[in-house]
Amino acid sequence: MGRVLLKVIILGDSGVGKTSLMNQYVNKRFSNQYKATIGADFLTKEVLVDDKTVTMQLWDTAGQERFQSLGVAFYRGADCCVLVYDVNSSKSFETLDSWRDEFLIQASPHDPENFPFVVLGNKIDVEEHKRQVSQKRAMTWCQSKGNIPYFETSAKEAINVEQAFQTIAKNAMNQEEETELYADYPDPIRISDTAGQNYGCNC
Amino acid sequence: MADTGDASGSTDKPIQVKLVLLGEASSVGKSSIVMRFVNNEFHDNKDPTIGAAFLTQKCRFEDRVLRYEIWDTAGQERFHSLAPMYYRNAQAAVVVYDITKASSLDKAKSWVKELQRQANPNIVIALAGNKLDLVKPASSSGDDSEPSTPPATPHESEDEADDATATPGENPASPGVESLRQVPKEEAQAYASEAGLLFFETSAKSGEGILEVFTEIAKKIPIEHILSSTRTGSRGGAAAGGRPADGAVNLEAGGARGKDACNC
Amino acid sequence: MPHLHELPHLPNIAFPPREYFILTNAGKPVFTSRTHVEDSSDDLTSAMGLMQALISVFADDGDKIRCINAGRTRISFLLRSPLYYVCVSSWREPESVIRVHLDYLHQQILSVVTASQLRKIFERRNNFDLRRLLDGTDGILHLLLSRLEQDVGLTTGSLGAVRLDHSVRSKAGDLLVPPKDLRDVLYVLLLLAPCLVKQSIHPSDLHVLLNTLSAPSLSSNSAPSSSSWLPICLPKYNSDGFLHVYVTFFGGKSEAIVDPSAALPPTPISGSDGSSSNTSLRSTGLLNALITASGRHGYSTNDLGVPGLRHFLYKSRSHVQITMPVWEEPYEIPDERKRLITLYQCVHDALHARSGQAQGPLKLHFLRTEKEIVMGWVTQPFELIVTLLPHLPKSAVVGAANAVAKWVKKEEGRLFIRDAPVF
């Protein structure tokens, strides 16, 4: 059996540093060729989670406009959603709610209450006095949404990026592993019941 | 020649013993064990069993002929819910794990639990740790396959995938080969005796331990019980002379024949 | 006066392996025909992610992508939500052929998980990793792909029967009728090699079944005493439920009685009834007759004595069965055979206007290449494609086709299964 694929969607306003975070983490340039045409691009990375190697597929959206709908298909089957804001921009923090709702509507996960999100407050390398969103404020919001794990990161200086993505992978993996196998063999077909549709020898 | 009232007398009619093999998928070696037992063959094939295969093998055991009716089941998760059909009326079960794969013992334990809860209460369960050939220096196959090495000392081996520990070269006792083992014999044996199981380490490849599994099962099977129940069952209760079910003869006392018992 | 339709010949092309992918509608990999996945796991997930994205772009506009043509390579898509099937081929076969391939992959997947199970799982979890449920079926899917490449029966929606004397066939058939007290038996099939002795089953289901049975784990375990039970869904019969198939092998490697039934698998059939048809097949000497026949199954175009004839494919429309001679010079060479099969597929596609050809279905279709003439001919009782030496005049080709049809008519009793007992 092939390796488990974890599908991770990264959402947040334009300019908060989604692409830089992923570049920092994956250490590979984005092609950007798909983003121009289909509004999204992805990177893959092999990650070790609980001694298991899995493939994490990180989907980065174009994100220029808020609520630019990417369509159900991009969100479908996500294992984790990462919400990114810029600690130096209140506005980017305030839109997290909408991004979260947008995701839940589009992806319509099986158990929205327990769907794994991770919040990243990026650009903590900028001078302290420019900061607009306090750690406390962010954590309060995360707690109110069902204890979403929160990391403060700097893509530029590689602060906390590795740790954040490790948590993302782990939470995505939990989602994957909780799945029981719906493999019950139903009672076999009763042939008499289906005799009407039996094409028997008529072919 | 049917019922002379002496159920223990030598008879040509073989006693049918329904036996089921269970264990994790991904080649712990269930089918290989059966092939070794039935055809005395070993094929290094990795193709998984689908559904369940049915094979039979006759055995002479003391003065009786047993006919093992073996259901070799597929280990994949999707077949799990079918397993009860195969073990429901079984008199014996062989639960197989791979001694070089710790997680396969966990799966084996869960099979044992399920059998003890849901199978025939008299079922004889044997636990077989297969692939002994991979950890015996005598046969040199299968070494350099995995670079990540499990820890050298047995008591640590629950952390089997912790690759921060010893490399093969640092293991002075049995370099390279024994280190493939992930399930220490003592650990599995302790579990087996606690759970009331027969216990074996086997190699379907070399044949080691395979006959013993079926011989020891034969010793432990309540044969009289089978005889009386088949007689009442299939011949419309004509078995007036059958012994009561729980009056089964203890075969363990006289059955010290080891390997040769199953040769026919 | 028949309408002759002439097309320029197909150029000589190479036949690099076709690539097949199955993914979920979340873009998660389910299967790939690539065998060295570990080396390129990264590429593979990327490719599948991209496929999902492409399909999505169209889906968001309420559209369905069918194929992308890139030079001589065509990427075909078959969407059977929650699964997507993709094939990359540069063989230049008609598009309809690949759709049939992809549909067979789908049928084979359904044979393992059923349509209703699949629906249920993905309603509850659209991120489900289907490989968990399909664990161990990769081999069967690979087998199917290689059969699709070589077995014209699959792409023409028909079956091949073992060439047998009618009396032997009907004796075997009588023996296969299960005892009256064994109810819930749907079919009993007798197989020699991959061919059929008796049948009454939808061709596509049968191919799925045959393919499953050729799984190495079944056929390599064919010790004289062995038999197998396996749950299988035959999607054309009922895509929502399982049947249990009981398979007994006798003697050689490839002879099997197959007995899909709804009966549960415990001992009864294996012990008594299953071996009853087995033993009676043996005791009447019928088994030997069958095995001998399977050795004589193949025949040569020389047997027909039609000048210039190199090969043909005859489908009896009423029996839904095909017959053809063995592949002979030059078609015993794999690439030449692939080329001819592709020509057959082109002719078949044109005859039935499978790719929506403007002129509609044809009665006759004629292809000429540097190496051969291929002509397809559809009549009420049969479809025939004949291959002849190049540069023969059309009149000779038509004459040859008539001669082949006549010969098959004469041999019909041995070539086809005409009456399967119903119970």
Which labels suit this protein?
heterotrimer, A: 203 residues, alpha/beta, six-stranded mixed β-sheet, 8 helices, C: 423 residues, alpha+beta, Beta-Lactamase, five-stranded antiparallel β-sheet, 13 helices, 17 strands, globular, disordered N terminus, Rab small monomeric GTPase (chain A), lipoprotein (chain A), Small_GTP-bd (chain A), P-loop_NTPase (chain A), prenylation (chain A)
Report on the architecture of this protein.
- The complex is a heterotrimer of chains A (203), B (264) and C (423).
- With 203 residues, chain A is α/β, with parallel strands linked by helices.
- Chain A has helices at residues 18-26, 33-38, 72-75, 90-94, 96-107, 135-144, 161-178, 191-194, and strands at residues 5-11, 40-49, 52-61, 80-86, 117-122, 150-152.
- Chain A has a 6-stranded mixed β-sheet with strand order 2-3-1-4-5-6, with helices on both faces.
- Chain A is globular, with a radius of gyration of 21 Å.
- The model of chain A is unreliable at 192-203 (pLDDT under 50).
- Chain B has 264 residues and is an alpha/beta fold.
- Chain B is 25% helix and 18% strand.
- A 6-stranded mixed β-sheet of chain B has the order 2-3-1-4-5-6, sandwiched between helices.
- Chain B is globular.
- Chain B starts with 14 loop residues before the first strand and ends in a 30-residue tail after the last helix.
- Chain C has 423 residues and is an alpha+beta fold.
- Chain C has 3 domains: 14-150, Beta-Lactamase (2-Layer Sandwich), CATH 3.30.450; 164-295, Beta-Lactamase (2-Layer Sandwich), CATH 3.30.450; 301-415, Beta-Lactamase.
- Chain C is built from 13 helices and 17 strands.
- Chain C has helices at 41-60, 95-113, 115-124, 131-134, 138-150, 152-155, 166-176, 203-213, 216-219, 268-283, 286-295, 334-351, 394-415, and strands at residues 6-7, 19-24, 29-32, 67-70, 73-80, 83-89, 159-160, 189-192, 195-198, 227-232, 243-249, 255-261, 309-316, 321-323, 364-368, 373-378, 382-388.
- Chain C starts with 5 loop residues before the first strand and ends in an 8-residue tail after the last helix.
- Mean pLDDT of chain C is 78; it is low at 1-9, 193-199 and 262-276.
- Chains in contact: A-B, A-C, B-C.
- The interface between A and B is small, with 6 and 9 residues.
- β2 of chain B pairs antiparallel with β10 of chain C, so a sheet runs across the interface.
